[in-house]
Amino acid sequence: MRYSAYAPVLRIVGALLIFISIGFVPPLIFALVNQDGAAGAFAISLLVVVAAGLGLFLPTRSAQRDLRISDGFLVVVACWAAVCLAGAIPFLIGLQASLADAVFESTSGITTTGATVFTGLAEMPISIRWYRQQLQWMGGLGIIILAVAILPMLRVGGMQVYKAEATGPVKESRLTPRIAETAKALWVIYIGLTVVCAAAYWAAGMSLFDAFTHSFSTVATAGFSTHDNSVGYFESALIDWLVVFFLFVSSINFALHFLALRRGSAQIYLKDPELKLFAIILLGVSALVTILLWRQQVYDNVWDSIRYATFQAVSFTTTTGFATAEVYLWPGTLPLLLILVSALGGCAGATTGGFKIVRVYLLTKQGLRELQRLVHPRSVVPLKLGGRTLDNEVANAVWGFVSLYILCIVVLTLIVSGIEQDLVTAVSVVFSAMNNLGPALGEAGANWGPLSDSTKLLMSFAMLLGRLEIFTVLVLLTPNYWRH
After folding, report:
1. Does the structure show a pLDDT above 60 at 149?
2. 65, 156 in Cβ contact below 8 A?
3. What pTM was computed for the model?
4. CA pair distance 45, 20, nearest whole angstrom
5. Rounded to the nearest 5°, which phi and psi values hold at 35?
């Protein structure tokens, strides 16, 4: 493939870097106002990222070739990788972190994983604390959708990029006729939900700074906090239940929010089969964890058991990773249960990671269909989602995702177990990274800092793999992709 073939991709990555450099301005202002010593780190980061963006954009600005669908995959992966690397610069300079730690923290934030290698968060410069939370918020709905909405002058084949980045097996529907309008509509909802969430947290007793920074984490279902004890720092039942509510809302397909607001009716939510299954799973996991906590007398009364169980069940299932307790120290199989539950994730089209509930729904329907075929071999049972018959292509895509997901989990676990020499640590960090969860067990139970640099870099790749839903990344590793 000649340089000219890459030119449109380089142009988009360069323009995106120039655009996201604006993200260094708010923490720079925080650093200057509070004189916390990190202003130089953000000023240098701003200049470096703008220079890199211009270096990619200016030589390729006249590239006219339209993007093909195959180009969309390369654009998505290149943009996410570039943003993760750019986001690591303030950690390298401001905290003098190692390259592996800086890249890991940046990738964890951008991919909304929420795993951290840092401790003593409350003692960090306030600008760095704001910046960590802001990274998650920027990555929440997808850097690519943001770029398509804000930078229409790029003449990007928007739908090609959107199909490559959007979550879930059903990606064909658009909320508005043009993809840029779709992206803008989603961001309006995203910003509105963030503001409402921050206001609720502030009214419940958080400081204004904590209210906004934790609303960033909540709406992005990410998990970073400005305190080492996460949400448990506030020791407030009201805040815990508010977090549960906003995590649930943020884990619903944003397309449903859009349609409900446009039509002025909540019936949209009640008719969605994926949302129904998601609510049932959350209630079931919460009830199971409550019973186990109560029977093992982890807490003094049933109400505390309900409170902590529900919070952690929702936090893990939505792949957020907020904590109000040291889950890795809970007795029995509870920690492992919650880690495994995170694989389910939230609804497709939301900010969550994981498998996505729609795939769970379709796999269940497919399983039941195969059982029926065993009894009635000649029967024709269509695969339906919400009354709509789906093509076999969708079923094949779901099975393909399952196969690659399991394969990636197995391969990555074998590699990490060879590096860390501890199977519990290896299994939990791979599940956590692939599902964009954050919390882990074993050596990474309290913090990911003790892990080796090799594991951190490998898990940074795993976070991107999970965030971009495997296919988008792995397709670039096939010889056929580059041959054409």
Report:
1. no
2. no
3. 0.90
4. 11
5. 50, 55
